Amino acid sequence: MAHVPPDRNLALELVRVTEAAAMGAGRWIGRGDKVAADQAAVDAMRSMLDTVSMAGVVVIGEGEKDEAPMLYNGEDVGDGNGPEVDVAVDPLEGTRLCAFGQPNSIAVIAASERGSLFFPGAAVYMEKVAVGADSVDAIDIDATPTENVNAVAKAKGKRVTDVRVTVLERDRHDELIGELRQAGARVALIRDGDVAPAIAAARPGTNVDILYGVGGTPEGVISAAALKCLGGGMQGKLWPRNDGERDALVAAGYDVDRVLTTDDLVKSDNIFVAATGVTTGALLSGVRYVRDGVVTDSLVMRSRSGTVRRIEARHTLSKLTHFTGREY
């Protein structure tokens, strides 16, 4: 079969996938069961993925980290026809956020040409700095947080005290948070889910200028794909948790001191990303239930054209259930 590059219609097919995952998780918002929420998102995403015209392979799946339900690495997705693509998925980014009814949980998927997504091997975590288009050239992950905040302030033409930095609330970030505040930045701490704020850093009017700190490597690759579509960017570094993980990475040929750029994480310039809000956050509105219906809010991005679509969709539940055979 001749190699078929992914075409623009793939973007709109993928948003159906994230809408389905978000609606699957939506029924579990605030019910305190993150595993059930994740499972519902995975099941809904997988069933919709099977209908997409592509020969996809999951390169970045979620779940190995915490033995959650997952779309696993190496799994074939799509109907097997059409373009050969790498797929990165997070059916429910921020499972705990969803379970506790907190902001910023999303369903997200990225696809790009086969062989173009960075495979992180044993690296579960990476250090990252993500920003929008106006600050890409200002950041340096090897510089201090103070230097980066000052550089971003200058690039954006604003005071340091107006720079808003989002950081995961973790013990490992105590020093980072202290230094950012000392530098004058406004730090917003989040419990989980750093994909939405990374994307938000490249979107106007979101109250996020920088995402900073150590988070999941799969999430880093997905964020890089979205940032590439939005003209933003990030720098990352693998962050082994212990000597065993470091040794495994080195043995597999990874340079753990190397700075990974957006282009290292996603080599292709033909990238498609779709994200749908589960709980309302900086980036998207969450799933809303109305009489016999669900309203979803999504972003659909394509790097080649630079087009970013915001899609609000109303789904009629009785018809959807009849049509798909799934309860939403």
Structural overview:
It is a single chain. With about 325 residues, the protein is α+β, with helices and mostly antiparallel strands. About 30% of the residues lie in helices and about 25% in strands. The protein has 10 helices and 14 strands. The chain has helices spanning about 10-25, 35-50, 95-100, 145-155, 175-180, 195-200, 215-230, 245-250, 260-265, 315-325, and strands at about 55-60, 75, 85-95, 105-115, 125-130, 165-170, 185-190, 210-215, 235-240, 260, 270-275, 290, 295-300, 305-315. The strands form 2 sheets. Strands 1, 2, 3, 4, 11, 12, 13 and 14 form an 8-stranded mixed beta sheet that branches. A hairpin with a 4-residue loop joins strand 13 and strand 14. Helix 1 packs antiparallel against helix 2 (about 35-50). The longest helix has 18 residues, at about 10-25. About 50% of the residues are buried. The model has no long low-confidence stretch (mean pLDDT about 95).
Compute the CA-based radius of gyration. Answer: 19 Å
Class by alpha and beta content: alpha+beta
Whole-Å distance between the termini?
37 Å
Can you summarize the main beta sheet?
A: 8 strands, mixed
Helix content: 25-40%
- Rounded mean pLDDT is 93
Task: Give the topology string: H per helix, E per strand.
Answer: HHEEEHEEHEHEHEHEHEHEEEEH
Using DSSP, what is the number of strands?
14
Strand % is 25-35%
Uncertain residue ranges: none
Shape: globular
Annotation field: number of helices: 10
